[in-house]
Specification:
The structure holds 2 protein chains of 2 kinds. By secondary structure, chain A is mainly alpha-helical. Chain A has one domain: Orthogonal Bundle (MetI-like fold). In chain A, 82% of the residues lie in helices and 0% in strands. Chain A is built from 11 helices and no strands. In chain A, α6 crosses α9 and α7 runs antiparallel to α9. The longest helix of chain B is centred in the last third of the chain and has 20 residues. In chain B, the strands form 2 sheets. Chain B has a 6-stranded mixed β-sheet, sandwiched between helices. In chain B, strands 2-1-4 form a 3-stranded antiparallel β-sheet, covered by helices on one side. Helix content of chain B is 35%, strand content 21%. Chain B is α/β, with parallel strands linked by helices. Chain B has 2 domains: 204 residues, P-loop containing nucleotide triphosphate hydrolases (Rossmann fold); 72 residues, no CATH class. Chain B is globular and about 50 Å long. The relative contact order of chain B is 0.20. The chains are: A mainly alpha, B alpha/beta. The interface between A and B is medium-sized, with 21 and 22 residues.
Chain lengths: 265, 282
């Protein structure tokens, strides 16, 4: 069957068909066994709630995304700067890297209440939590990248009497790019997770309510379809972030890096 | 160790015939004066070595693994400092290297190209680092690419080229600074024999045409005999010069030289000397 070998079919049509089949099965099971929607809602019930509550849910999505995106931006800028400083001096790296690891291994859920108590403005507290969780992959990957300079190329640069700045711009930064973009992919997802987790802990309602708050509220009210709708939005947001990072990485590395090059057969 | 040190005096010249190469009596390009290398872990990489490379020579370094061929080449390149003894370039200090007529280039074992740069940018790198203007650089890049026959691939990325072509880019990058001394560390070791022979022939005519001096590290007896005006055989533990062989076949040589009786005889002689060097390598 030639369809099976078609690249476009494999990449787009086949996961779409698989997804539709799963949703159809889910709907069928819910209807067949008459499962009440406060236990486990059918996709149709979720969709109905979603359409009904669109304005509230989208505003909640925007609040969460705003926190995640600001935190992600802060993590990228701060993380890259920290990595550059660490790479410049072994002493600084040795002195501070252990504490960066401490930040990474401490569960954000455990420190979020503390941060929310200490920081008066809830939005800033949320951003802080999400930044803390998103920054480590950027630091670690950028350091790794800046260090993984080809030995021969480093020799070539020193043979040609390249200055420190020339070596940084022409050799170290390009060498680090693939690692940096790997860090971006991980970090973008973590920023969203951080934002949601912090919102759960903070439980901010009212005008600043994010998706996590919507999920909590829907749970209290046994409005399970709405809970699913909010969950669906978080997932979509995560996927959009990931795809955006993949696109960015392809844009920057597509011409030369093995990971982005389509094998020529 | 003691026995090995005594072999230092077993230096000999296999081919006693006077060198027929045109520049054998030229000015010294590099003088290695009792240069010695002891690594940080205490291993003696090189016993004190004395060697002079003269203008226009094509000198190959050959020997068993661990004999310090690459270490010696790194000393000449200034990539590493001798533990004792010293090196003199063009009868003066190393600080004058880099001026016109005092330029050395290094070709590594691997092509060591920047994967993120196109062929022409890779070739331009040494000129960029030296701060040469784009217009001035452009002429040199065209000439270098033309010399290695890669003009039509200048806009390609290294990954789009074959191993042999990548090595050519590497050579073009070394030539773009118009060096007088070319150092090559087993540049064609990873290539298939056909490509290697082709690049060897190209290299030998390049050396002849450009009046270069070359120091060439290799593992291949045939390559050393085909290319060199002089072969330096080294022995290991500690790395030292075991003997020398002058190849007085006139230049320019072409591929026909490979099939001559004389070529076979020279290869046999070199092979014998290499075996002795291996036996002496404690």
């Amino acid at each position: 069957m030639p369809l099976i070998n078609n690249e476009l079919f494999l990449r787009i049509a086949s996961p779409t068909i698989a997804g539709l089949a799963m949703v159809a099965a889910w709907e069928g099971v819910c209807r067949y066994y008459n499962i009440p929607s406060y236990l486990f809602p059918a996709p149709s019930a979720v969709a109905a709630t979603f359409i009904e509550d669109t304005p509230t849910l989208l505003r909640a999505l925007w609040m969460t995304m705003r926190v995640a995106l600001i935190a992600f931006g802060a993590a990228v800028i701060l993380g890259t700067l920290i990595a550059f400083v660490f790479v410049q001096s072994k002493v600084i790296e040795r002195a501070f890297l252990p504490y960066a690891v401490v930040l990474q291994v401490t569960p954000i859920v455990a420190i979020a209440p503390l941060i929310i108590i200490l920081v008066k403005d809830t939005q800033i507290a949320l951003i802080l939590c999400a930044t803390i969780i998103a920054i480590f992959p950027i630091i670690a990957n950028t350091i790794l990248g800046l260090r993984s300079v080809d030995h021969g190329l480093a020799n070539l640069f020193s043979l040609n009497k390249a200055g420190r700045l020339q070596t940084l711009i022409r050799l170290r930064i390009p060498s680090a790019l693939p690692y940096f973009f790997g860090g971006l992919r991980i970090s973008s997802g973590l920023a969203l997770i951080g934002a949601v987790v912090a919102e759960f802990v903070a439980g901010t309602g009212g005008r600043q309510a994010g998706l996590a708050y919507e999920i909590l509220q829907s749970g209290f009210q046994l409005n399970i379809p709405r809970m699913f709708a909010a969950l669906f939005l978080i997932t979509v947001a995560g996927i959009v972030l990931f795809v955006a990072m993949v696109g960015l990485s392809r844009l920057a590395l597509g011409d030369w890096h093995e990971s982005e090059v389509v094998a020529e057969t | 160790m003691q026995a090995a040190v005594e072999h230092l005096d077993t230096r000999r010249v296999a081919a006693a015939a006077p060198a027929a190469a045109r520049h054998a009596t030229g000015e010294p390009v590099v003088e290695i004066l009792s240069a010695e290398k002891v690594f940080a872990n205490g291993t003696r990489g090189l016993a004190p070595i004395d060697l002079t490379i003269r203008e226009g020579e094509f000198v190959s370094l050959i020997g068993p693994s661990g004999c310090g061929k690459s270490t010696l080449l790194k000393l000449v390149a200034g990539l590493s400092e001798p533990t004792d003894g010293r090196l003199v370039w063009w009868r003066s200090g190393f600080d004058r290297v880099g001026q016109d007529g005092r330029q050395l280039s290094f070709v590594f074992q691997d092509p060591t190209l920047m994967p993120w740069s196109r062929v022409e940018s890779n070739v331009r790198l040494p000129l960029d680092l030296a701060g040469m203007s784009k217009a001035q650089a452009a002429k040199r890049i065209d000439a270098a690419l033309d010399l290695v026959g890669l003009t039509e691939y200048r806009r390609n990325y290294p990954r789009q080229l074959s191993g042999g072509m990548r090595m050519r880019v590497s050579i073009a990058r070394a030539l773009v600074t118009e060096p007088n001394l070319l150092l090559m560390d087993e540049p064609f070791g990873a290539l298939d024999e056909f490509t290697r022979n082709k690049l060897d022939s190209d290299l030998v005519s390049l050396w002849w045409g450009k009046k270069l001096s070359v120091i060439f590290v290799t593992h291949s007896i045939y390559e050393a005999v085909f290319l060199s005006t002089r072969i330096v055989v080294m022995a290991a533990r500690p790395g030292r010069i075991f003997g020398e062989m002058v190849i007085d076949e006139p230049h320019p040589r072409d591929d026909a030289f490979r099939t001559t009786q004389r070529f076979a005889q020279l290869c046999r002689d070199l092979s014998t000397m290499l075996t002795e060097a291996s036996l002496a390598s404690g």
